[in-house]
Amino acid sequence: MSSRTAVVTGGASGIGEAISRRLAADGAMVAILDIDGSAAEALASSIELSGGKAIGLTADVTDRAAIDAGLNEARTRLGRPTILVNSAGLSIDGPFLEITAETWNRSLAINLTGTFDSCQAVLPDMIEEGWGRIVNISSSSIHSGAPGLAGYVAAKSGVVGLTKVLALEFAKFGITVNTVPPGFIDTPMLRNTVEKGFIDLDQQTARTPVGRIGQPEDVAAVCAFLTSEEAGYVTGQSIGVNGGRNT
Ligand code: NAP
């Protein structure tokens, strides 16, 4: 993967952080795009201290101009991106009857339109290169539903549909597009959802066949495969990382 430039949105925390670290450890040059630019830069420095190549960039995925600016900087500093992992996401809903139009629209903007825009911004590089790998992080809540997360689950379900369409449209260019819907993964987002009372972690652990909550590295390992050379015949797929739930 040493000649590849990878872009990871939401790459400074949780699952995105583990993916950024893993792709860099596997030899990719990683552009970490996150709304929290200082966290992205701090992670890039930490990756470089361990011998990897990474840059941290500020970009809100709800702002197409910011995505384009971040990608331009990534192209200049690291070369044309041919790997994209969309991990930026936020669960911000609440009880259904209390969801405002503003919250609903923001949830769709971050969790669905941000993925659309990031894919559209990077795909021309991949077409030019005749090679590309996209992994969209969705959520196992698309299988189970999740009370209090209507906008989030609707958006993540849209990500699965978007993934399938892109897989079909771009296969002829050597580009694969897959989605990973994680189960419960120990990250700041999950801890926040538990604190709000939307998830009972003990109950969910008891319902997980492997008997534990997932770690961000569990998701990163699957992304490492899906973005590798040898995954070229895997496209349009949804690869769950959920400890055996939703089988
Ligand atoms: P996380 O630790 O909160 O990481 C998400 C990262 O995305 C954070 O750095 C966050 O920045 C950033 N971000 C938020 N809004 C953004 C925006 N508009 N533009 C750019 N970056 C933005 O969460 P995580 O658990 O790792 O989640 C990663 C992905 O996995 C998300 O798509 C999530 O929906 C999905 N997922 C997670 C779980 C789980 O159990 N953890 C399960 C299913 C799916 P701030 O911290 O500054 O907001």
UniProtKB/TrEMBL annotation:
Residues forming the Ketoreductase domain are 4-183
Q: Which SMART domains match?
A: PKS_KR
Q: Where in the cell is it found?
A: Secreted, Cell wall
**Pfam families membership:** adh_short_C2 (PF13561)
| N-terminal signal peptide | none
Per its record, the protein catalyses: a (3R)-hydroxyacyl-[ACP] + NADP(+) = a 3-oxoacyl-[ACP] + NADPH + H(+)
PROSITE patterns according to UniProt: ADH_SHORT (PS00061)
The protein's predominant localisation is secreted
Keywords on this record? Cell wall, Secreted
Lineage: superkingdom: Bacteria
Q: Which PANTHER family match?
A: 3-OXOACYL-(ACYL-CARRIER-PROTEIN) REDUCTASE, 3-OXOACYL-[ACYL-CARRIER-PROTEIN] REDUCTASE FABG
Q: What's the family?
A: Belongs to the short-chain dehydrogenases/reductases (SDR) family.
Q: What is this protein called?
A: 3-oxoacyl-[acyl-carrier-protein] reductase MabA
Name the source organism. Rhodococcus globerulus
